[in-house]
Amino acid sequence: AQTVTQSQPEMSVQEAETVTLSCTYDTSENNYYLFWYKQPPSRQMILVIRQEAYKQQNATENRFSVNFQKAAKSFSLKISDSQLGDTAMYFCAFMKHWRGGGSNYKLTFGKGTLLTVNP
Amino acid sequence: DAGVTQSPTHLIKTRGQQVTLRCSPKSGHDTVSWYQQALGQGPQFIFQYYEEEERQRGNFPDRFSGHQFPNYSSELNVNALLLGDSALYLCASSPRGRGVQYFGPGTRLLVL
User: Fold this and answer.
1) What are the C-alpha distances in Å from B76 to residues A25, A85, B34, B93?
2) Per residue in A27-39, pLDDT tens?
3) CB contact residues (below 8 A), chain B span 20-79, against chain A
4) 3-state DSSP assignment of residue B32
């Protein structure tokens, strides 16, 4: 079974600064996906970024980037130029890579990190 | 293009009752997964439907059941409600064979 650990229950950052959220995971799989999801107070879970384990290049999406260390089973999220709208709960999640057609595997989530961006 | 939609947004039930939650996937998506999110926790996987069949199931009792319709929409049914079933229930849809899931806004269930 896979496990996902987020060791920082809460973090805060000043507007316009950079913050890094940590995530570690445990798996015996070689091919898998890792995700960061954002859940603002309005509660809609939004996909922030996705990383495929077989790709060595770290994924980036505008101000969001990851540091994926496969050997260390570490997957951190860096938010640059933090904005007030980035205030949310951030969840790290794992999914096994599906080899068959259709469907896909379940997501396994960490417990989340509550990020507050201060003005 | 509408995203994943869920209904109702809120629901209050009493212990022992039954509830049905509904989900319409994003256009072009054929796989629907359901998650339970207790307050202050990460979502927990309940089950997944593809081609109108339950394909995977998490560690939830048989009181939790579901269905997928030919138009890919899905229902989650919970029988004999317990206080501990109070949670946010999230539906996520996926395009065929793709390793990504997109979530709906959720249904907040309160069991009294």
Assistant:
1) 29, 32, 8, 14
2) 998 889 999 999 9
3) 30-31, 33, 35, 41-45, 48, 50-51, 55-56, 58
4) strand
